[in-house]
Amino acid sequence: MFFYWIDPGIRKLWFAIIDKNLKIYELGAIINELEWDRIDNARRLADIEIFFQKMIEKYPPSWVCIEKLFFTKYNQNNAEFVYWVRGILLSKFYQQNCKILELTPKEIKKFITWTGLAKKELMQKTVKKLFKLTQLPQPHDAADALWMAYIIAKKNNIHINPAINFQKFPNLHNL
């Protein structure tokens, strides 16, 4: 039984794969450092789909938690591509018969800190304390990944194991 967390982005797509004991199998990002044009979108989408197909074969999912897109005036140009990625991944996980949970960043913060307005540093400090880490998870996306894992576990009444090996982060994949 594996749980996936995915934060789809245009340059970095963050993800985590854990088991029911909260053992981290994969935690990192698919990164794209190159500039691209719209013609490259189909290739990038195919690369992301192939990557997750390999992960699904290696770690069959039972739950996936995918972060909803948070709109600001700064990311409106990226929204179209991010929604394409979300569509591909939601379809792929649906075909695997796994349960899908979608949360906004505010919902995640509210679940953890009781306020949807928590700053990233508070989220990192709370992760450090809950999971008994020796340092703050860096970057803040690592804290998000652990929170999503925690939320999935709580929704499934799974015991939280505070002894998490955090040394694997970040596991970056270039596509």
Number of helices: 5
Order of helices and strands: EEEHEHEHHHE
DSSP E strands, number: 6
Q: Note the beta-strand portion.
A: 15-25%
How large is the radius of gyration? 16 Å
With strands numbered from the N-terminus, the spatial order across the biggest sheet is 5-4-1-2-3-6
The CATH topology is given as Nucleotidyltransferase, domain 5
Shape: globular
The CATH homologous superfamily corresponds to: Ribonuclease H-like superfamily/Ribonuclease H
What is the highest CATH level, the class?
Alpha Beta
Mean pLDDT, all residues: 78
The N- and C-terminal alpha carbons lie at a distance of: 27 Å
CATH architecture: 2-Layer Sandwich
Major β-sheet annotation:
6 strands, mixed
Helix and strand arrangement:
Elements: E1 2-7, E2 12-19, E3 24-31, H1 40-58, E4 61-67, H2 79-95, E5 99-103, H3 105-113, H4 120-130, H5 140-155, E6 171-174
Helix pairs in contact: 1-2, 4-5
Structure overview:
By secondary structure, the protein is α/β, with parallel strands linked by helices. It has a single domain (2-174), classed as Ribonuclease H-like superfamily/Ribonuclease H (Nucleotidyltransferase, domain 5, 2-Layer Sandwich), CATH 3.30.420. The chain has helices at residues 40-58, 79-95, 105-113, 120-130, 140-155; strands at residues 2-7, 12-19, 24-31, 61-67, 99-103, 171-174. The chain has a six-stranded mixed beta sheet, with helices on both faces. Strand 4, helix 2 and strand 5 (99-103) form a beta-alpha-beta unit. Helix 1 (40-58) packs parallel to helix 2 (79-95) and helix 4 packs across helix 5 (140-155). The radius of gyration is 16 Å and the shape is globular.
